[in-house]
Specification:
- 0% of the residues lie in helices and 45% in strands.
- The strands form 14 sheets. Strands 3, 5, 6, 9, 14, 15, 16 and 18 form an eight-stranded antiparallel sheet that branches. Strands 4, 7, 8, 10, 11, 12, 13 and 17 form an eight-stranded antiparallel sheet that branches. Strands 50, 51, 52, 53, 54, 55 and 56 form a seven-stranded mixed sheet that branches.
- The longest helix has 4 residues.
- The two termini are 36 Å apart.
Amino acid sequence: MDILMKRYLFPALIAFGFLIPASAQTTVFNCSTFATTGTCGVGGGQNFRNNGSTIKPSPNITFIPTGTIHAAGVLWWYTPVNIQQFTSTFTFVPNGQNFAFVVQNCNQRGCGSGQGNTFASGAGCEAGFYQAFDGPPYPNNVFALELDSYSPLTLNAPFTYSSAQIYHALQSPCLPNDNGPNYTPIAKLSTYPVNLTRGLRDTTTGHKYSVTVKYDGSNLTIDMYDVTAGGVCPGDACYNYTWTNVDIPALVGNSTTAYVGFTGATGLISLNPLYVDSFSYTEGSTTTQAATPTFSPVAGTYSSAQSVRISDVASGATIYYTTNGTTPTTSSTRYTDPITVSSTEALKAIAVTTADAKSAVASAGYTISSLPSVATPEFSPAAGTYSSAQSVTISDGTSDAAIYYTTNGTAPTTSSTRYTGALTVRSTETLKAIGVAPGHTNSAVASAAYTITGVPSVAEEAYVYDTVAAGTYAYDASSSGKLTMIEGSPFPTSGSLVGANGKFFLTQGSGHVFAYKVESNGGIGKLISKIDTQLYSGSECGSPQDAELDRTGAYVYALLGGKYSSDKSACSAIQTFEIGSTGELTFKGSTNAGDENTVLPSVTGNNKFAYSLSSTEGGGAECCHFTSFSRESTGVLNVINAHETNPAPRPGKPDYSPVSNPIPDPTDHFALTVEPQGGGLRQLASYTAESQGNTTSTNTWENMPTVTDDVYGMVLDPTGKILAVATGDGVQFFHFNGANPVTKFTGVIGASGHITKMAWDNHGHLYAQNGTSGAMYVYEVTTKSVEELSASPTLIPLSRYSSFVVRTK
């Protein structure tokens, strides 16, 4: 998250390339428990102030009690503290909704019932520090680090994992938003590997978590771990993230002091309590490290002795090093001249400044090898100019050599795509490859440039529609993976994207569903029809929270929620609208979808049934199940009582539960992720929808592939044979085999990074968008190979509202 801000000069000395703190650390308070009086007293006249409604010292803080409905809780240290640099540690037990560490000097009417140490703001997704409806003026001078167990990571996405994010005034923590004014939603960050939920929003593990927040005047770092599960930071079970260029003093009213504390909120009935067990705050910073030394040449494998130089950017710093892999100290060898490395060894070094500030340890491993090199790969046909697309094979003369290649002219590494079969070169591009084999050094880089003159370089394959806050951008997608913006973009559309069926483009917002004409060039034309969802049955549950186009392109399903039944239970409904031949929208019926945790259902390929993931009533270890629907010939969905048979667990271990929405193939099968009840490794499973709507999986714990917890989405190709899984590092592909177990196809592909949205066209192309940069990657996928196309990626506009759909021509 980028924050544009005025930078302040702190009373600190910049010298010799490192920062000397302005003052020593000072502990303001350190409360391992809370009471009604004393240093850690809570209440009127005490050091901690609350809003008097939902916080009770016990000796921990019952921040949000069980049964609370649509309320916000706050806890403030009564006196402003220095916030130029600080460290704060607290422990809490989440309740499945929202909790935030907040720094603020809120001082106007929009700050709720009070200001400063009595500030309390919006309930529900507004998390107690944000408010969109009571102004102007709105809450000001607020900085918050929110931990969210309820919202999805991006707008209009399903819930996948608990999250963290930082906010300042007028930035909304609500995803999705309430379709109200003054919302600027911000994408959230998965807290993997530390999950505050049991895999579904509004659930909690009931565990205690420890959080440490450090701020050095520019960088804000969070370290979080599960105390109950035995976690620790640093370590594999630690969530660590650093936000850079953060100016908290500027964000809280250009002040060096502010109030610190917590806010929390619930929108639905809180099924679990939110506790705060401890809280400490220390002013000042411990940042005194010198810059880390660097080595030249860099670590690696070399065929001859190397002369290694060690340097440091801190002027006057003294460098100490070791050559045996041990950690250096000021008693180690002092660096004065280049080091000759003539055999395999590990160098380590530290830098020490004249003020005795020590750097982190730098390491570099050098391998001096006399091993033979792998033969240089060869291309067939050879590089050259051709009048048609070419099928290019890559071979290597070294037995058992693995080949890695690139198609964009960059040098390949072992992180590049591994060669598995012939590559189709349809347009001008340069292939490069290396060979890798055990007992050998890597080959030289082989390169082959191909020029294709006889085929169009931009053969049109599909249209890509990208809806952002400003409207909808439309693109021609070529066979090379290039996206060319269609003239007129962004086209004026209302609300968020629903889908496109070739003739019409659908969106929803402000309680309506909209249908626009699709022009012959793929552009979006005039509004053809709109329909008010609030005029029909189902609206008693609220306004549309999401909507989607069914696989036939003939019906729109809208999920309505946000209101409560007369007994104060959550309410959700699914409305069905038919799209006529001229684009007119007709209401066909609605069904009560049960609790509000229900998401839009997935319709099976044979159009007989639909299924969505829901939480088990009352929570508990079982967590999740399917809500099942039958589908009438009119497209209307009706809830049915169907039986669910999950994969067979390991003997003596808990049963499996589904933890993601089903992804259907063209027949009666679907893919999803499952997890042992109570938590454990996530695995990919296949299910079958039987003739009466019952769902069955014949998979077992032994034959289901494992996936990481940070799965941001899954899509099956139109043939139902290839399953693409988006992770925090890229895209991984699997073979989907109907009722039989899913099988691994590839590792994580390419350098596409944090993929949050994916879609297929009908030509075997997967479009995958990076949720951070907006880059759209295009892969050509067959049952035997995966290849990133030559013109991929294309950088397209990205906003917090961004979503896209692909429509084959």
